[in-house]
Structure prediction request, 624 residues.
Amino acid sequence: MEGKRYICTAPKEPMVFYFGRKLTELIPMDIEKQLLHHISSAFQQLFNHEIAPDSLALQPTRKEFQGNYTFVLFPFLKVTRLSPEESGKRIGEYLREHAGLVADYNVIKGFLNLSVDESHWIRVFQSILANPDFGQFAPNGERVMVEYSSPNTNKPLHLGHLRNNFLGYAVSEILKANGFEVIKANLVNDRGIHICKSMVAYQKLANGETPESAGLKGDHLAGKYYVLFDKEYKKQIEELIEKGMDKEEAKKQAPWMLEAQQMLIEWEKGNPEVVDLWKTMNGWVYEGFAATYKTMGVDFDKTYYESDTYLLGKDIVSEGLEKGVFFKKPNGSVWVDLTSEGLDEKLVLRSDGTSVYITQDMGTADLKYRDFEINRSVYVVGNEQDYHFDVLFKIMRKLGRPYGKGLYHLSYGMVDLPSGKMKSREGTVVDGDDLMAEMVETAREHTQELGKIDGFSNEEAEALYETLGMGALKYFLLKVDPKKRMLFNPAESIEFQGNTGPFIQYTHARISAIRRKADQIGLEYGPNSLSGLNSLVESEKNLIILLQDYEKKLKTAAEEYAPSVIAQYLFDLAKEYNRFYAELPIFSETKGQIQSFRVALSVEVAKTIRKGMKLLGINVPEKM
RNA sequence: GGUCCUGUAGCUCAACUGGAUAGAGCAACUGCCUUCUAAGCAGUAGGUUUCAGGUUCGAGUCCUGACAGGAUCACCA
Prediction:
């Protein structure tokens, strides 16, 4: 079933689905679709011109003009053969007469502005209230794997990883809300030369140090030795250069590098001593990661380890050779030629028959499909690997994989510091654990300064600091379009005011206070308490329109794999709500019906904020 | 050097996929707490959308070419 199907000529047919929902249920909901349907009819009736509602579009009317939706006339003047003004008048008049929901219109230059009757907005709101599934699409039968995080076990997670993890988690949740079945996967890079580097340095320098004895989390302990390796390695290179060795040669001949390489060979052979050390150190690292993931609030349904998967893919190389997708060079190495697709020739197997990075990624792609029969596979990986995934996906498609079309690289930009790129080896990184702890600490100071924790127990207060600090951090990283690189200045702390997580959380807490009061005085605010309501003020109407937009934004966020769409939307919603809050009274309002409506509207805004923030992995407090 | 990405207010980001006078937040300035939480609201100021051409009724958005920043182009991962 195609997602965009909309049959305007037969709204009686009950079995037509739209976003997995019966069309008939939509009638009060999707005003935009209804308007387009009527505009299509207008073209038919007035100008004898067939045009499908699908090929028409409305846009929100700009604030400075009267109206809710605007229809741009310029593209249709050839059809109407009238001036823009006259065309707009004819269509507007037709709509006012035939489409019950159009209360008024005006034409300015080539723009037809339509005002929707207030009673329709009230009905839209009622249908949102009455719909328990609002913001959750029905299952669409598609299964998607989102791979994210994918850490190396030789160092702790840094700020760049935080962006990766928050993005991967949020995209997964957004896809779920869109009706996908989602499998969150983590591919842990637990083997290879860089892991051996930490191990060599540990063997040489640690004297049996453990996380307990060092008072360090396991991942930080491994990271410490990774940095120590690099220090010693650089020293050794310099010594060799002083003795007259060429720089490139020195890099290869430095004693510790030779040891690391030897250790990798021993590891692959299964040397018990090496494997023991590897298991011990990785075990420490996993304990550290588990703690970090817990603080981050992310989780996984499936964890793959490269130590299990690194040999995969060689059979695909033979398959590719048979199919003529790959070719062999005289030295025995195997290549793929992608020059016809604008890329280069790319190695897929070394001349000694060992795998390269892309070999195992081919194997893992198949493995994921065998394990879960996924329709789509999303890789949340930084944009430095754009080329790699371009090649990988082209190869899998050439090989005719059924999931080939569903492969997607969610490529996100680096997080830069004012000093430039972060480098683990040189210690110029913003550590993830440190940053999260600092955020919570800042939230504590800020909250105490504002004196906002009267009546909180110790535990409640601590939970609030965590909610706010993590909310500020996650929102900061998620509000930006994923593909853009972003700057983080450690000297300026992340804000708690304006377009921030805490601003949205605050809006939720404010509404919670209203709901508590309404419950306390026994005010009804369910769908049935709204009958007889017949007029709205501007901020009320704006809020209803925004609430209605939620599902549209949800869909866009999934199509673009962009949590920023949700973040931006939630800010707009919170902003509009705060305007409403400042302008309009609730409990001092004399008409009980208006009281009920305003509470109901507030509560629905809070619910939407909660839902949306949850997609971003952000909690919202009842009080702050 | 080839390829790809990015360039919007002093700073951080939007702009519904080609539509009206390019919008928010931060920072600056001015108001608003005796009424539901001021982590808020209202207002002032801030722009040749890097530059130059082109496409058309109409361009921040599309095409070409500069300029600037970044990534990548390993028998590394």
Observations:
- Chain A has a mean pLDDT of 90.
- Chain A has 22 helices and 16 strands.
- The radius of gyration of chain A is 30 Å.
- The CA atoms of residues 61 and 204 of chain A lie 69 Å apart.
